[in-house]
């Protein structure tokens, strides 16, 4: 186990291993995405209140779900950076922050589009929306902090600490609908709910879309990490050999 952990900290080992994963992950992503989109657009029955607007549910829920995964991922990587000083962990923090900002922005935008039909307003300063917006600014803060500090070691430590602190807001986002009076619907386990109205024709495409978005996240993270590895290790012999073989 510790041997595998130490290998994972090697940028060269990760680059070679992830190169073998990528084709399979991309193929799975497109398969999930194709079946999920076709099912959601053509076969999911219209909502009795929202009509066709409920189709955005199959985009907003997966994107909002994955947006909550970035700070925990960055916090774990940041802790590894602070304790073991693994270069790959710091690379994960750096690449995850801008991706997380994009996913969070998309979750906010898709939620606003859904909200104008459901609530009659694009935006309301309730707990869920406000805390998610705060997450967006925190992620932008991590990106800006990295750019502002010229010392790479100081930047790595500062971003790691901010990533760990940012996890507190993830808890606030998760339980905001329970702690405060809000327009946003309460958190529910949609698939395992005892509500018999949510049959397989509703939740199966949702599971497929969640799988597609998580696979897209994995592919994006791996590709961004690989690019950052090549940038940081450009003077290493193995990178020079890789370039010569292209």
Attribute tags:
globular, 9 helices, mainly alpha
Order of helices and strands: HHHHHHHHH
Number of domains: 1
The total of beta strands comes to 0
CA radius of gyration is: 20 Å
**Number of helical elements:** 9
Helix content: over 70%
Query: Sheet bearing the most strands, described?
Result: none
Mean pLDDT: 89
Low-confidence stretches: 191-196
Distance between the termini: 34 Å
Strand content: under 5%
Structural class: mainly alpha
Principal-axis shape equals: globular
Question: Topology, pairings included?
Answer:
Blueprint (H helix, E strand, L loop, with lengths): L1 H7 L2 H32 L14 H11 L2 H15 L2 H32 L8 H22 L3 H28 L20 H33 L4 H9 L1
Structure report:
This protein has 246 residues and is mainly α. The chain has one domain. The chain contains nine helices and no strands. It has helices at residues 2-8, 11-42, 57-67, 70-84, 87-118, 127-148, 152-179, 200-232, 237-245. Helix 3 packs antiparallel against helix 5 (87-118), helix 3 (57-67) packs across helix 8 and helix 4 (70-84) runs antiparallel to helix 5 (87-118). The longest helix has 33 residues, at 200-232. The two termini are 34 Å apart.
